[in-house]
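=== Structure Prediction Worksheet ===
Name of assembly: unnamed complex
Input type: mixed (protein and possibly other molecules)
Chain count: two
Listed entries:
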Amino acid sequence: MEDISDQYVPADVEESAADHWAETDAYEATKEAHADDPAFFFVDGPPYTSGQMHLGTAWNKTLKDTLIRYKRMTGHRVTDRPGYDMHGLPIEVKVEEELGFESKKDIEELGVEAFIEECKTFAERNREKMDEDFQSMGVWMDWDDPYRTVDPSYMEATWWAFQRVHENGLVERGKRAVNQCPRCETALANNEVEYHEIESPSIYVKFPLKGREGNLVVWTTTPWTLPGNTFVAVGEDVTYQGVRAETESGDTEVLYLAEECVEEVLKKGRYVDYEVVEQLTGEDLVGLEYEHPLAEEVPDHAAFDGALQVYTADYVEVDRTGLVHSAPGHGQEDFERGQELGLEIFSPVVGNGDYTEQAGKYEGQFVRDANDDIVADLDSKDLLLSGETTRHDYGQCWRCDTDIIYLATDQWFITVTDIKEELLANIEESEWFPGWARDNRFRNFVEDAPDWNVSRQRYWGIPLPIWVPVDAGEDLEAEDCLVVGTREELAERADQELNPEEMDLHRPAVDDVTITEDGTTYERVPDVFDVWIDSSVASWGTLGYPAETEAFEELWPADLIVEAHDQTRGWFWSQLGMGTAAVGEVPYEQVLMHGFANDKDGRKMSKSVGNIVTPEEAIDRAGRDPLRAYLLSHDQQGANLAFQWDGLADVESTLNIFWNVFRFPLPYMRLDGYDPAEADLSDGELTVVDEWVLSRLQSVKSEVREAWEGYEVHEALNTVLDFLTEDVSRFYVKAIRERMWEEEDSAGKRGAYATLATVLDETVRMMAPFTPYLAERMYQHLDGGETTVHMLDYPEVDAELHDPDLEAHMAVLRKVEEAAANARQQGGRKLRWPVSRVVVESDEAAVREAVESLSDLFAERVNTREVVVVSRFDELVERAEPKMSEIGPAFGGDSQKVMQAVEGATREEVEAGVDADGEHYDLDDGMVEYHAEPPEGISGADFDSPVGDGSVYVDTTLTDDLESEGYARDVVRRIQEMRKTLDLDVEEPIHTRLDVSDERVAGFVDDHREFVADETRTAEWVDGDEAAFDLVEEWDVEGVDVTIGVKRVEDPDTPDGE
RNA sequence: GGGCCAAUAGCUCAGUCAGGUUGAGCGCUCGGCUGAUAACCGGGAGGUCCGCGGUUCAAAUCCGCGUUGGCCCA
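=== Predicted Assembly ===
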């Protein structure tokens, strides 16, 4: 094993640990060690293979890795197969960009097979890069065997599930108004639409009424949907008015619109005057018929029974005009209302956004490009009341940022709205951390979830396993279709010869497969699945189901999934939806939902803002373990992280303290030939601090366990780190340092070695899931009995060593010690100088008991000759403080004199009455307040402890004896500093020259020559030229000039020197 | 436009559920310690508890209305 460096250098530690893992197959050994343990089925949410790891995905995988390591150490056989989500439009778009493609036509020209190959290569290339990234964070998962959504065996899992959904009667085919990306020529799910502000026309259009005078006034930002107009919607209880409006030229016309909107709209139409001719409700307007405003341009417009009439609808708001142009072919709400009304759907637009011949004059135009023509046509017919533009949020394709259009197209759905009750009930079957994520956020989402559009008119995805009769018409029902569940089943039923072992399930391999049954021939629906279908089956796809059944039967459903809060609408939902629709169950039992990694101000990291921090950069500047510990030291339940470089540096310095604690005993142990791996607490003598730190260790283990079990990961980590810094480093190590310096083997030293070795062994194991490299490095140096620290057990509480009373006492003592240090500082007596006496005063018996039980330790730590514990310190002097509000009225003009006489007097003096200017004054009780002060030479400070408060008094009066020791210690410390300057070995003897300018002080130091020589390994006191010394320095010791010379002894074997 | 989460010292957060003198760590500063020493210990400064309104003897805490940031939905 290499030497342990003075400084914690994460990069070195990590390299050394990584090498060790590689050499010893540590990961395999760890899995093997737990092969027979009870199973813990963790499922990795597959990251999308479009780019590389960023800080958020690094956090996510680190958290998963930490939990997996913890679960293993607590005796579980953990499923740790990582996953990758590799299909979908994002990759298609990237590949199209690489190939310089602009539309589907380019893809068809290249050929679907070649395009699929490109996508496959692209996704695989990204996956390999991400594989490396995740492994570079120290994530131990089964990287040799990840599940990939592009593997036929995984794809089959979606087929199997979809077949179940079909059997359950939850698959539906139909025309629905969906979000359509005209560039990608596919439907998009609501959650694939992102909203941005755009500028659109904002036009007010007159729809001439049939059979009566007047026009309905509607407003729209999408003129291109007017050819598809089918009805006008009004609010049932809204008040409408018919107004006769006068134009600038003096003509008049009648307009119908909501009362509230009249003024505003007439102003926009530049009417000069108007009168109300009619007032009526929405209900009254129902049934009015109107002329299609583009009747000439679009002769084939909706004219069927019930079209071009007024209906009520609940989506109407009293805004703009209060009348809403409705086209079921172009809007979701319009579509739903149209269905209720039994209206046909008229949608003269194809998938790429071009008008069909049904759009008459506009045939072949891209819809958005037709806006201007339509506005102009309306204007020419005097049907345009007003035309301007407006800025508003509008949906865009999540991948290519093209503005979407609403179209009614044939799509396939999983009708999750039919099983809403079951979905909501299944939510209750899962336990979420934090709880509010389930009960508020997720529940709301599920309540509002519409039917799931699972079909995409694209290429790079899992083909829909649906075969429809070749002659199927518009009204095809899902139950008349075949849904295939596995490759084997397809091979059996297919008309063609297929090899289930070797066939690829991607397009175009399955496109031409037909099935003939009962005299009907079926062909495959050309669509692919929505990419969210892929990961929705991860809980069984991970296990190779349906091809492999054993693992599924043993493990399913997942014990735990861990993702960020954006997955509420994503993976948390898709799994619930698919699980419930296919098998009636939620596929996971526990959900840990963490937050996002934002920038230092809590803002989202983004390329355009330029505030991105990459994991690589953080690893470079701090290290893998520090980055992991930093990420894990913050709340892991729903809260976002505001990344701070300072915070990362803080964590690194905390780990450095851990490193210092770890390496502190090593030189001593080596000198004594002590092997920490063989540490035995029954060998040697345990002092009270040993017993205390061992008890604290038990408390920490129990707190840490509890935190883990509630997935309070940051609590677990911070508890260990606090223990290391507060208890081990600041208290324990300080307390045992002197014992380590003892030269001979002693029971006390062995006790300290055993204690510290035990503490280190267990904290290393507790830290292992968080900082795997650092823990490995330490374990291999301290013990190394097993291949890796990660295959060991997580430490368990040893009740024998747990002593809550002692911990309580020590907690009191530390508070008292703090107060003593405070009092010392006030009395101007530094710790190196002993004091004769420290008095601890408290009227709490528990406090006194605590201090008394630890008084030796206390005396040592505060450097006092004597510790006195009392309930009341009777040397305090009560000093009087006059209360002028009482004295003033009582003594009138003499008040000032009385005040001066009273101030600072003792209680005795005041009670006897005070004299001033020859007069005697008696005072009442209420006129004076007393407070107790320490007498001259004693300074005090108060403390609050867990069991009660009190005060500490430090007697700083000097005696020759104390002063003598103080100076001697000061001299020792100067010589030590010089030894360090000379970089002498701890053991190396020296010759020392000492000149003290003050005779009295020189005497003091002489009294302690032996002590000084001992402490500084001075073999001989010498005189001589300054030039004869390796180092000569002049010091100011408490105002006294002291000149010290130090030189090495030439031959260390003969310490007597010359 | 709607839902959820957050806002407390320069920074990270606790305290909010169950109302009662705002706390810790880091940083800053002054001092101490000095064979773990780029470590460690003590003192001090530092707060509109995001704002406004309400309930209450009493509000960081409960309620309402806002502001800012984040996520989700439209």
